[in-house]
Each structure stands twice: as structure tokens, then as C-alpha cells.
């Protein structure tokens, strides 16, 4: 009997309209366009403005667009998983809010917190609900409103992050396409280098915690950078080796968009040339769980059925991993 796999049958991204440029950041903190571009590759990022606008806005717009372009009725969806570190609120899950907004009345839904690797974790988990035969249509959302946890007085973090995200539809197939393999990792000893100090159960919000600016993302950039370069490159090379793939076999690398220098190191380690690397960091910055679906969305028109694609990410936790998939459809 042929193996049942989960295959991506559609992708849709969404970013807010407001563009925060390096030039505008120059007026907010002691930085400059040359430093930001040379150290990160980022020129601008999007910011979700307005009252009561949470990550669910990003997820809802992406899922609405996805349902429309794949001609899927919301009632057909069995499950929505949302990867995010900036949920609308600690509970209920942002995935529940998205499901309600789009009318996915027959689905159950939950969030996954794995920072920049969240989309990889959620895609792996969602594909297993399909492989078991338990569900037919699963939506994976990766979305973050990073501006809600960024200190715009901290030049080391505010230049990197942006808001945005995307969603993919997973369905079952017995063809030789879809999610072929996944390697996921976590190391909680990385927490001191990338975390939010207050607002959780260990240190609930107080006037003091707000005054101390502890409700923002805290990052020791150069330490995270070193771990990211090593681990993202290593896991990407390992998944190729495990599946007998050479650099020539790989059509696309889809790397987490945290820093162009981390992306280049990963591509080099894999032996993959820049023409095969999806990159949109210059216009969106680091949208945490949003970067991978946003890349797939931007490059969708170039993808061909059967393309070997390697997704890779590294982020808070630490968490990191890689997915090997074969693209399921010709986009044109
Ligand atoms: O997606 C989640 C995982 N996160 C990542 O993967 C991020 C990994 N880290 C990075 O991408 C980089 O570490 C950063 C982009 C955050 C920082 O780049 P860096 O090359 O590691 O810089 P650094 O932190 O080592 O700082 C170098 C210098 C320092 O000045 P001194 O001490 O050498 O005088 C910083 O104060 O650059 C200074 N600096 C800045 N200068 C201008 C730091 N931020 C800025 C800035 N503008 N925005």
C-alpha cells in the first residue's frame, strides 16, 4: 500500500501596510541604515498599527486568503495550528480566535510556542494528523506581531523584528510529494540568551516590571548568532544527508529570516548557491514564526511540482530544525 503523506496544497501570506524603514529607525535610536543592512540585510519591516490589533489579525487575513485561493469552505477544516510567541492573549489560543473569525466551525485549534522554529514544529505536527488518516484538511499558521514585545529604545533588537505571517493548507496524498522528513530540536539552556523577563507565571506584570522594561524581548545577539549559524547549518546538512540529497537535488532552501549572514552560512554549509535561497528579509525583517510561510508565499509562482525544498530555522528556546518536503503543485 502506498504511504499517505501530508502535502501543502496552498500558501497565503499577509503583512500589515505600515512600513518601518531603517531611515525612520535612525530617528528613534542611535543606528544607521549602513549598519543595519551590512549586519542583517534588513531595509524595512511591517508594523501592525491600531487598537486591539493582535496576531489573530495577521492569521485571520492569511487564512481567509488561503481558503479563497484553494476554494476551500471553512467548514471543511479539521484543525488549525497557530505557531506564535505573540498570541493575542495568554489564553484562549490565537488559533481559536482565527478559527472563529474565518468560520472554521468544525475544526479544533491550538497554538504552538517554539519561537522562530514554530512553523517547523507546527507543520511537523499537522502533517502527522494527516498521515494517521485522522484528519483531511489542516491549516498551519505562522504569525507574529513582534512589535508588541519590542523595545523601540533598544537598538540591538528593534532593528531586526517585524510583523507578519502566513498559512498553508495541508491535505493528504499518496503521490511522491509532500512532507518527507523532519528533524526538530530544543535546548532549554538557551533561555537566558533570548527570552521575555516578565509577564509570565514566574514574574507576573507589576508596575515595577513595566518600569524596568521587562515586557520586551531580551536578546544577547552575538551569542544567539553563534548558536544559530552552527545549528541551522548543521541540521540542514544532516537532513540532506539522511535523505540522500546532494546540493544539485535541492531546488530551494527556505531559511528563517533572522539575519542574512546566518542564511548565507547555512546555504554555504549545504553547498547551495544563492539562486536557490528564498530571501525576503530586506522587506519584512524577522517576523519570528511568520518568516517561512511568508517566503513560500513570495516565491510560490517559481515553485514546481516535485521540487525538493529544505526549510530550516533557529530561534528562542533554543529551538531549531529542518523539514524536507517535495512541493505538491505547479503554481502557474
Ligand atoms: O530569530 C531569532 C533568533 N535571533 C537571531 O538569530 C539573531 C542573531 N543575532 C544577530 O542577528 C546579530 O547578533 C545582531 C544583528 C542582533 C547584532 O549583530 P552583531 O554583529 O552580532 O553585533 P553585536 O551585538 O556584536 O554588536 C556590535 C556592535 C556593538 O558596539 P561595540 O560594543 O562594538 O562598540 C553594538 O553596540 O554594534 C553595536 N550595535 C549597533 N550599532 C548600530 C548594536 N546594535 C546596533 C545598531 N546600530 N542597531
From TrEMBL:
User: Which cellular compartments is it found in?
Assistant: Cytoplasm
GO MF annotations in UniProt:
beta-ketoacyl-acyl-carrier-protein synthase III activity
| One Pfam family matching this protein | ACP_syn_III
Record bears the keyword Acyltransferase: yes
What does the entry's domain section say?
A: The last Arg residue of the ACP-binding site is essential for the weak association between ACP/AcpP and FabH.
Q: Which family does it belong to?
A: Belongs to the thiolase-like superfamily. FabH family.
Q: What is this protein called?
A: Beta-ketoacyl-[acyl-carrier-protein] synthase III
Starting at the broadest rank, the lineage of the source organism is: Bacteria, Pseudomonadati, Bacteroidota, Cytophagia, Cytophagales
Amino acid at each position: 500500500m502506498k504511504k499517505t503523506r501530508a502535502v501543502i496544497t496552498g500558501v497565503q501570506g499577509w503583512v500589515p501596510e505600515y512600513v518601518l524603514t531603517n531611515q525612520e529607525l535612525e530617528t528613534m535610536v542611535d543606528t544607521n541604515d549602513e549598519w543595519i543592512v551590512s549586519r542583517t540585510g534588513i531595509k524595512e519591516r511591517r508594523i501592525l498599527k491600531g487598537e486591539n490589533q493582535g496576531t489573530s489579525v495577521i492569521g485571520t487575513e492569511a487564512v481567509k486568503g488561503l481558503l479563497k485561493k484553494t476554494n476551500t469552505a471553512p467548514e471543511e477544516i479539521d484543525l488549525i495550528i497557530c505557531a506564535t510567541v505573540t498570541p493575542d492573549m495568554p489564553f484562549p489560543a490565537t488559533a481559536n480566535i482565527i478559527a472563529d473569525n474565518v468560520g472554521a466551525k468544525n475544526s479544533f485549534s491550538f497554538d504552538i510556542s517554539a519561537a522562530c522554529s514554530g512553523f517547523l514544529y507546527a507543520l511537523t505536527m499537522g502533517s502527522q494528523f494527516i498521515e494517521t488518516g485522522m484528519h483531511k484538511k489542516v491549516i498551519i499558521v505562522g504569525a507574529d506581531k513582534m512589535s508588541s514585545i519590542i523595545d523601540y529604545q533598544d537598538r540591538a533588537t528593534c532593528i531586526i523584528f517585524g510583523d507578519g505571517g502566513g498559512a498553508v493548507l495541508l491535505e493528504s496524498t499518496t503521490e511522491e510529494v509532500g512532507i518527507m522528513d523532519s528533524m526538530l530540536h530544543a535546548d532549554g539552556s538557551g533561555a537566558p540568551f533570548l527570552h521575555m523577563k516578565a509577564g509570565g507565571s514566574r514574574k507576573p506584570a507589576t508596575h515595577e516590571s513595566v518600569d524596568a522594561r521587562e515586557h520586551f524581548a531580551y536578546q544577547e545577539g552575538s551569542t544567539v548568532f553563534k548558536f544559530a549559524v552552527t545549528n541551522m547549518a548543521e541540521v540542514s546538512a544532516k537532513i540532506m544527508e539522511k535523505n540522500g540529497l546532494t546540493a544539485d537535488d535541492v531546488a530551494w532552501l527556505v531559511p528563517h529570516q533572522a539575519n542574512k549572514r546566518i542564511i548565507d552560512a547555512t546555504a554555504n554549509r549545504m553547498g547551495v548557491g544563492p539562486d536557490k535561497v528564498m530571501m525576503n528579509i530586506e522587506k519584512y525583517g524577522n517576523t519570528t514564526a511568520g518568516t517561512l510561510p511568508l517566503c513560500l508565499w513570495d516565491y510560490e509562482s517559481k515553485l514546481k511540482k516535485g521540487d525538493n525544498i529544505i526549510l530550516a530555522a533557529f530561534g528562542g528556546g533554543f529551538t531549531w530544525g529542518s523539514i524536507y518536503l517535495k512541493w505538491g503543485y505547479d503554481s502557474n
